[in-house]
UniProtKB/TrEMBL annotation:
Co-factor requirement: pyridoxal 5'-phosphate
Organism: Alkalibaculum bacchi
Domain Aromatic amino acid beta-eliminating lyase/threonine aldolase: 55-427
Protein's UniProt name: Tryptophanase
Modified residues (N6-(pyridoxal phosphate)lysine): 266
Similarity section: Belongs to the beta-eliminating lyase family.
Key words of the record: Lyase, Pyridoxal phosphate
Length: 482
């Protein structure tokens, strides 16, 4: 994808696949979009698909599958125990990551539950580059405290640092000295750091972290859910890896880790998850949780069809021409938006295009959820469903006060191989229009607020009638167009 030059000189990412199955989409008129988002409590998670034109909520479980994945699903070996399908996946895991032990789980957070219940004890500290929502919730539920040790550049919205997902080795050293290695069950590194804009870590950084872990006899756990994007960035941005194949880079990464877990809804473009483990004793402990929470050891809550698809998907992840599609489409969209003045996270990362709501709607205070308000406005403007990744996605402090997020982002995910370039251009066009009309956007306030992971199902309302004003501005500029 990256090697194709256009005679015109334009930089256009060219798809290295063709589309053979399609799904019809609807684009509702703007008035209907206002009605839909109102009914959804201004929470894009609660919109119905029939009202969504471009579903950019997530890449989770919605990446396009390949013909080989679909074909493999037809030959799955369906049995409760001992399925051949599982052994094919296990062999693939050993082949790619070099781990002997593998436990299946129904999705990424199920792996986190098992890891947390096995390894996290009350009072433990878990250092990491950055948390993910479900990860932190599981570690905290088991009495642990998360310490985020991302390098300072990681939280700078505009940067040219190629590896904003790196952990700061000095902060890690200090954290180990302060809390004592005996209180730290493991260090967690997240590939393609989700909440700070899909930003990668470098192999060099992981090597440094592993050195520190080894010195202090602390386990190193990798969340590989977004590994595909991270592998691509290591290949194209890290000097020492330029000549290595994706498979070689993967092996170098996995050789450093004691445990690797992943959401198969992202890695491998299927659905499910799993944990790769080196230590025999930990494997034995985790096994019991799999049978308790997930299912038998040879399916772990997944359908065998999905397991077959995951096996092929993991193999396809080893192909740079497959995994570069996401990051290159994201970079294209980020550049289009920047040309229109829209503030986005730079450098563009993986997973999706991340809009900086703190700047886009700088007039909205964090207590009124600027990123949530912007996500609702983007849906009204274009039928585009993104996801709030800001204060709404945080939990309140124990005294009930808001915990303002480090960043206020609207994530517009680009599920792999799903959208065409004209759809990406449409999304950018509508968001640029919204940016010109940003003064019309105001905040949101809760109507129904769940206690845990409130962003999934909470309901909000606008603080004024700003959404009606936005619809009438849309009609003024676009006439009777959808
Ligand atoms: N770790 C990371 C880095 C993730 O991005 C996710 C999910 C999980 C763990 C949990 O995996 O959903 O299979 O249980 N991220 C999704 C998202 C939800 O939309 O970014 P899961």
């Amino acid at each position: 994808m990256s090697n194709i030059k256009f005679f015109s000189g334009e930089q256009i990412p060219l798809e290295m696949h063709k589309v053979r199955i399609v799904q019809k989409l609807n684009l509702q008129p703007v008035e209907k979009r206002l009605k839909a988002i109102t009914e959804a409590g201004n929470n894009t998670f609660l919109l119905k698909n029939r009202d969504v034109f471009m579903d950019m909520l997530t890449d989770s479980g919605v990446n396009a599958m390949s013909d080989r994945q679909l074909g493999a699903m037809m030959v799955a070996d369906d049995s409760y125990a001992g399925s051949e399908t599982f052994f094919r996946l296990k062999e693939k895991i050993t082949d790619i990551f070099g781990f002997e032990h593998f436990l299946p789980a129904h999705q990424g957070r199920a792996c986190e539950n098992i890891i947390a219940q096995t390894l996290v004890k009350p009072g433990n500290i878990i250092p990491m580059n950055y948390h993910f929502t479900t990860t932190r919730a599981h570690f905290v539920l088991n009495g642990g405290t998360v310490e985020e040790l991302i390098i300072d550049e990681g939280l700078e919205v505009i940067s040219n640092h190629p590896f904003k997902g790196n952990i700061c080795a000095d902060k890690l050293r200090h954290c180990i000295d302060k809390h004592g290695a005996e209180n730290i069950p493991f260090v967690r590194m997240e590939a393609g750091t989700n909440l700070i804009g899909g930003q990668p870590f470098s192999l060099e950084n992981l090597e440094e972290v592993q050195e520190l872990c080894k010195e202090n006899k602390i386990l190193l756990v990798l969340d590989a859910s977004l590994l595909a994007d991270n592998l691509h960035f290591i290949k194209v941005r890290e000097e020492q890896c330029r000549e290595l194949s994706i498979r070689e880079i993967t092996k170098r990464i996995s050789d450093l880790c004691d445990i690797i877990y992943f959401s198969g809804r992202k890695l491998g473009c299927a659905r499910g998850g799993g944990i790769c483990i080196r230590d025999e004793k930990i494997f034995a402990q985790m096994k019991e949780f799999v049978t308790l929470y997930e299912g038998f050891l040879t399916y772990g809550g997944m359908s065998v069809r999905e397991i077959e698809a995951m096996t092929i998907g993991l193999e396809e992840t080893m192909d740079e021409e497959v995994i570069n599609q996401g990051p290159e489409f994201i970079a294209f969209m980020a550049e289009e938006l920047q040309r229109g003045g829209v503030p986005v996270i730079t450098p563009p990362g993986g997973l999706g295009c991340h809009i900086n709501a703190m700047k886009f709607v700088s007039h909205i205070p964090q207590e009124q959820y600027p990123a949530g308000a912007l996500a609702a406005a983007i849906y009204i403007a274009g039928g585009i469903r993104g996801m709030e990744r800001g204060t709404l996605s945080e939990e309140r402090n124990s005294d009930g006060s808001e915990h303002p997020a480090d960043m206020e982002l609207v994530r517009l995910a680009l599920p792999r191989r799903v959208f065409t370039l004209s759809q990406v251009k449409y999304a950018a066009d509508r968001i640029i229009w919204l940016y010109k009309n940003r003064h019309l956007i105001e905040g949101l306030t809760f109507v129904e607020e769940p206690r845990i992971l409130r962003f999934f199902t909470g309901k909000l309302k606008p603080v004024s009638n700003w959404q009606e004003k936005l619809v009438s501005a849309f009609r003024d500029d676009f006439g009777d167009s959808l």
